[in-house]
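May I ask you to review the protein record following this short note?
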Amino acid sequence: MSLFRPPIVRSATAALDRSLFSKTFPIAAARVLSPKNIPRIQVQLNKSHEVLNLERRKPVEIDPDPALASKGGKCLLLNPDVKPYDSNTWSKVLREASENDEIKVIPYDLVLDYNYWQYRTISYFKDAVLTEVVDIMTSLLPEDAQAEIPTGFTMVGHVAHLNLRDEYLPYKKIIAEVIVDKNPTIRTVINKTNNVGTESEFRTFAYEVLFGLDDMNVEVGEGECVFKFDYSKVYWNSRLQTEHKRIVDMFTPGEVVCDVMAGIGPFALPAGKKEVFVLANDLNPESYKYLKEGIVRNKVSEIVQPFNEDGHTFIQHAADHLLNLTATSQNTITRPLRAPKRSRRHPPPTTPAPTTKTLTIPTTISHFVMNLPAIAISFLPSFNGLYNSHDSLFYPHTATKLPMIHVHCFSTKSDDNVRETAEICERVSEALGFEIRPGEQEMSVHEVRDVAPKKRMFCASFRLPAEVAFRERKAVGEKDGWGTWMKKQLGMESEE
């Protein structure tokens, strides 16, 4: 309700004075003379729309009269249209209840304070009425700073990660303090001071602490896995959780996935949980360290193998690695089986249940994941000759298909993404040296998320063309790496 707004406290931007947010609203209340009648009367007054309908505030309150309150007296808060001394504003139900001495309509001072108000404005429809809950920041910030009040932040464990615009930097401490007050799990608030990737090729970023300790050792749960890492040393984006799940859901147990830019394993570890074999690689030594720890912590050591290599060479190394495992008969692993739960109703089996199972690692890779959207497409030349002289392993000689490649990238934004899809296909084709049009080679371009006003993240998925996979293989070096890419992008925005 627009009536229930916090007080304007523009002068509080230098320091947060929570007491200034206390505000009294004079309304009416129905004193219920017999507490046992409260449920019935509340139902009746709900039907007449006279009960106060306020978010995060129950309409039943202790009677404001101390003498009655000591005897368990209660009252029902009424909406602002009901006036305590004007029965013309009462419904027939309310008047009859009053005439029957079941209730007494009295004035009531509703006090809302800092603990009630929220950080941000929320608008919603309830009973076909647009309701707006006004935020603390609207009351705090100057009128000329109301256009785009910071409402979004990324939570990574106990850390809230802000990306404040310049005009809000003078109020950054206040913003951080309110965020902590309104989010009990947050202990540290940081603000990014440069773009991801400009600090290092490992997608880390410089930051300042706005509130709390500079404690970046966090714990995050995702995809039935637990990740523990130093957020200042590795890349993690909680906003990609949906994308992580979307990709992992494409994998079938028993397949092999090559995660070329695995980070600390948001694709690799959940895939391992569903018994997908994963070759997980990252160039960042810190990511590699936390990836190894995560593999052990999440009990996928037998099925997820970590690597710390340059992605250009790793692509062909991974394919060769599997071929070598098969050639040397090292392509089987043994995994422990969980003991089945027994109930008292069913006696234990006479034959002991197996405690382990043996899995065979396929000879070829089914999926490549390349989640380094700023430059992942530049790694595609490494697929040239990936399976040179091994065409007999694939269709039509066998039922096995060449791998699907899922490469993340950035492009512009439009309503239908038609222009972007065509542009991404052109970039993929140029990198592969083979033309792929939309719809060919199972090519699809999926919109992942917006990262800037004119910038969107996509994922292009396509089947590796036989013309590329079976070419003569050439030596692979670091082609068009991060430093070269950054020089080419002068004047463009870096990755969020």
